[in-house]
Amino acid sequence: MKPVVIVSTYPNKKSILKIANELVKNKTIACVNISKIDSVYSWNGKIQNSPEYIAIFKTVTKNKIKLKNIIEETHPYDVPEIAEIDVNSINKSYLNWLIESTN
């Protein structure tokens, strides 16, 4: 089984914590890292400078479609970022924990 990392940004911590806890509880993901960031982007023809939270979801290949669908269905943004990062290398002990945590 291969590791999968999905990245998304959220407008506030509350909006990510609810879904993050549910995803860990139902073993869709092993964990999610959440951190406050500042984002600069174009939206509706204007440059925006906004505080956001980045969520780094960690799972395995068998759960990635389900995870992407849940993020899209529950996300508060009209156009959510759902970016998959290709993991070419990962230490064996972490991979074993990841697999065990999502089974």
UniProtKB/TrEMBL annotation:
Q: Which InterPro entries match?
A: Ion_tolerance_CutA, N-reg_PII-like_a/b, N-reg_PII/ATP_PRibTrfase_C
According to the UniProt entry, its GO molecular function terms are:
copper ion binding
Task: Set out the biological process GO terms recorded for this chain's protein.
Answer: response to metal ion
Known Pfam families for this protein?
Answer: CutA1 (PF03091)
- Family, per entry: Belongs to the CutA family.
Q: Which PANTHER family match?
A: DIVALENT CATION TOLERANCE CUTA-RELATED, FI09726P
This chain belongs to which protein, by name?
Answer: Divalent-cation tolerance protein CutA
Naturally occurring in which organism (per UniProt): Candidatus Nitrosomarinus catalinensis
**Which gene carries the instructions for this protein?**
cutA
